Amino acid sequence: MLELSNLTLAEGRVAHLDDVTVSFRKGRLTTLLGRTGAGKTTLMRAIAGLAEPDRGRIALDGKDWSRLAPWQRPVAMVTQQFINYPHLSVLDNVAFPLVRRKVPQDKAHEAARDMLGRVGLGTMIDRRPSQLSGGQQQRVAIARALVKKAPVVLLDEPFVNLDYKLREGLREELVDLLKAERETIVIYASTDPREALQMGDDVILMAEGRAIQSGEPQNVYARPGTTRAAEVVSDPPINLIGMEVSGGQLRLDRLADLPAHALGRDLPAGRYTLGLRAHSIRQGGDLSARVSLTEVSGSETVTHLQAAGQALVMLERTVTNHALGTTITLSLDLGEALVFGAQGRLIEKEPVHG
Amino acid sequence: MRTLYLALKYLAVLLWSAFVIFPFLWMISTSFKTANAVTGGAKWLPWLQFEPSLSGWQSLFGGVGGINILKPYANSAIVTLSGSAIALVLGTLAAYGLSRFTFKAGPLKNGDITFFFISQRIMPPIVLAIPFFLMLRFLGLLDTLPGLILIYVAMLMPIAVWVMVDFFNSVPRGLDEMAWMDGCTPVTTFLRVILPNALPGLVVAAMFCLIFGWNDFFFAFTMTFTEVQLLPVSIVALNSSVTPWWSLSAAAIVSVAPLAVLAFVVERFLSRGGLAGAVR
After folding, report:
1. How far off is chain B from A162, nearest CA to CA, in Å?
2. Which chain B residues are closer than 8 Å to A69 by Cβ?
3. B12 assigned to some structural domain
4. How far is CA A93 from CA A124, A168, B186, in A?
5. Is residue B162 part of a domain?
6. What's the domain range around B252?
7. Which residues 91-150 in chain A show a CB within 8 A of chain B?
8. Is the distance from CB of B250 to CB of B56 less than 8 angstroms?
9. Is B134 left (phi over 0), alpha (psi -120 to 50) or beta?
10. How do residues B179-213 score in pLDDT, each as one tens digit?
11. Is residue B275 part of a domain?
């Protein structure tokens, strides 16, 4: 188990990591999900020893890493940029970490050849990295990271600079490759909630340098602990609507009064935030809203709406091209609604129907 | 329109080539002339119509009224090559440090240190002549090869630092970090990863060092008396009341030859491309 405790790293007044305490388990792929600037890369660099935390501790199986230089840490890393050694052939690139660790040349080449075969570059071992395409270059980097069998593998948005089709394919290949490593801790950073939730055995949500929630993907998705976590984990964006409850009655700010709704029955009077996923807003009903943007992707439509000053996002599983500026009617399905308290914390509740 | 453009382009290239090549042709032809042929001029074909003579060349190898160029030539080669080599090694190490690590001495930071190196080339050499002279005298190295090498290292290292700092700054830091991940210490990172990729920069820096070192007259003249003579100084010694253009031309050819070969080789090397493919 790789344990990070109270990791803090600030540059001037900007906190890149703010008291992060998380752990990563062996044989599992943990995704770090967060927007750009959330601290994912800094966290990985701290684990690799490339960034020095101001406070906190990193330990693998109880062994403290604080005093280990980057070249002493048993870590492999693949970055967004496709970094390879330009002066070495593809084969020598992949064999390099083994040769540096005093593995005999022929053994290192054998292992490198084997790993290159597994990433589909078996026929290109004599080329230079500059003679490869972007996707192939990144495969070389991945092969180089995996060949040393490091107990900790860090993957920092490795496919973000590749085109969509390639990304899909490589992601699957990578997951297959990593499945074979039962003792390896794999940490994968992503800005894409779908990717993070699909790939991860565990997911850690990051925002503003803090680890705001961790757990298994379906739990984290179903029960985001705070409004911030709900924002990070939801794609398309979640609708957060201010709400007043009094005597079982719900009053959604600027939108609607819902008399005696089931959702309000167990809530004490006060102010709340209602978290409504985009698929819980449906067309047709007694709310009216103006269309401000429509994104049609394949078989889905994401429509951005304005309803009396409240921005809403609606997801439909059909292709519906709402004309810009037109007014449509909506209804809200509160069945899967999340309710957050005054501090933005999730209020656990039994599922309600009504 | 296209043909006109092409014709003009070729014309421009031809004119430029002539501009560059003619001095050399003139120099070569002059080196085979006698006094009369130089001053008299030709009736029909300038540069070609004359009675060839080897007297200019003979004067370089112990001929009448001439010098023996072999010893100064060897001296110049020794001083330039060793001075450049030492300056390159020290300069490259310093440049890597300045490019990768942060130094701070009071208000002085990396940029100031780099500028300090370069600033030595801003001062006119005469400013440095007296301190250098006194230092060499103190060390007992005046008029010796090691003394000259020392001076040349001091004069050439700023060039190496300057070129290499710029070059190392263009090599992505990610490459260093990747090497660390792969088990390289900073020293092996430098030797195994950065240096092999810095070859184009090294070649450029080496070229500058060799050219400046080889062509230097000022320090070769002020730091030596009788024991050691370098090529530029001995060429000047050819001069007398009547300027011996034929000998000077021969000497100029001999002295420019290694640099011409160097330029040719380096051009070939650099056109093959340098750091393609490190980071996308």
Report:
1. 11
2. 180, 185
3. no
4. 12, 25, 18
5. yes
6. 70-270
7. 96-97, 100-101, 128-132, 134, 137, 144-145, 148
8. yes
9. alpha
10. 999 999 999 999 999 999 888 889 889 999 999 99
11. no
What structural domains and CATH numbers belong to chain A?
A: 2-224 (3.40.50.300), 239-340 (2.40.50.140)
CATH number of the domain to which B196 belongs:
1.10.3720.10
Is residue B280 a part of any domain in this protein? no
Q: What is the pTM assigned to this prediction?
A: 0.81
The total number of structural domains in chain B stands at 1
- The ipTM is 0.82
List, for residues B14-70, the tens digit of each pLDDT value. 999 999 998 888 889 888 888 777 777 666 776 677 778 888 888 888 766 677 888
Task: Pick from B182, B185, B190, B195 the residue to mutate for testing the A interface (most A CBs within 10 Å).
Answer: B182
Q: Which amino acid is at A344?
A: G
What is residue A21's predicted lDDT score, i.e. its pLDDT?
95
